[in-house]
Amino acid sequence: NAGVTQTPKFRILKIGQSMTLQCAQDMNHNYMYWYRQDPGMGLKLIYYSVGAGITDKGEVPNGYNVSRSTTEDFPLRLELAAPSQTSVYFCASSYSGTGNYGYTFGSGTRLTVV
Amino acid sequence: KNEVEQSPQNLTAQEGEFITINCSYSVGISALHWLQQHPGGGIVSLFMLSSGKKKHGRLIATINIQEKHSSLHITASHPRDSAVYICAVRWSSGDKLTFGTGTRLAVRP
What we know:
The complex is a heterodimer. Helices cover 0% and strands 49% of the residues of chain A. Chain A has no helices and eleven strands. In chain A, strand 4 and strand 5 form a beta hairpin. In chain B, a hairpin with a 5-residue loop joins strand 4 and strand 5. The termini of chain B are far apart. In chain B, 0% of the residues lie in helices and 61% in strands. Chains A and B meet through strand 5, strand 9 and strand 10 of A and strand 4, strand 5, strand 9 and strand 10 of B.
């Protein structure tokens, strides 16, 4: 049982490049989330999904896109990378939106945009 | 504004000490979560509380709804407890989590 798997773990992008951060979970969780963690700040929600085919914006969605074609996968797309997107990105999943059964986090992707 | 504040920001302890980390929030919540972030970056859920107290091994989490305050206690601390401890709340008015900035704990042998 792998939990939440994120790839890649590290990436350096040049300004204007694009990339996709992959996230997959094998727990049949309905809810999936993308967060970013900046130094000295709490995690901020970028996008979330309540099920396959349904996505919605979080607190800081600008510059990102997501899709949820299957229950298992929730990729995060950066179309035109900017230095402000340098951060650590975490994908998470939960059985329900209340989090009553807890949240499972991926190991994170450290992204640097230069 | 809905806010979550943690204290202290940094904490250094000697092995064996009893540790308390605090979390305060501004308005009503439906649940509070304590998370642990290891030095390698991974985040693990420790507790979810809506009232009272929960215990798991050497970790104890309490919440006082009236005072809008939660504490995470670690008994008989060990160097492997060194991590960042994060408080997150789910507001009564919404369905998203708001995270505190974390408490960085270092336990020295």
